[in-house]
Specification:
Layout (H helix, E strand, L loop, with lengths): L1 H12 L3 E6 L7 E9 L13 E6 L7 H15 L3 E2 L6 E6 L2 E8 L2 E6 L2 H14 L2 E3 L5 E2 L2 E2 L1 E3 L2 E3 L1
């Protein structure tokens, strides 16, 4: 529902919307708990084959990976002035003076929109300083919803 709300705001206010993709999203999170894995095949220490590896960072396939990534992103967004939306934790709001921006997260896909395009560019620079990202510019798919620009609006 929040996705539809954000798209409705974009259309009604005629705002630009950026789709950002964070590279290697699950490799960016620092683990704050002890997690051990078997030695990966091809990297087994033959002198100590029964030993395990302690992870310091998250890996793909690790069940904690999405939570670790979200915690990392949440902390960063709060540190640069975003506020978490109370009803839906995937939406973050940034406001300064009369300008407002909305950032919507779904795993490694991010939608960023707002009333000031210079502010959007600044926020994209801040995000890219924290994690490698790609600005896909035009939204094609988000949260399983196909998005097509038509005339002055979007078709979902």
């Amino acid at each position: 529902m929040t996705v539809i709300l954000v798209f409705s705001i974009v259309i009604s206010c005629d705002w630009k919307i950026h789709q950002l993709d964070i590279h290697n999203v699950f490799l960016n999170g620092i683990l704050h708990e002890e997690v051990y894995i078997k030695q990966p095949s091809g990297f087994v220490d033959f002198a100590l084959p029964s030993h395990v590896c302690r992870l310091h960072k998250s890996l793909y396939g690790l069940k904690q990976a999405p939570r670790v990534w979200y915690t990392c992103l949440n902390g960063f967004l709060l540190s640069i002035g975003f506020h978490a939306f109370k009803v839906d934790t995937s939406l973050f709001i940034f406001s300064v003076d009369a300008d407002i921006c909305y950032l919507l997260v779904y795993v490694n896909d991010i939608l960023l929109t707002g009333s000031n395009s210079l502010l959007l560019q600044r926020l994209i620079q801040l995000l890219s300083s924290e994690s490698k990202l790609c600005d896909l510019d035009i939204v094609h798919y988000f949260f399983g919803i196909e998005v097509m620009p038509i005339g002055l609006g979007l078709m979902l």
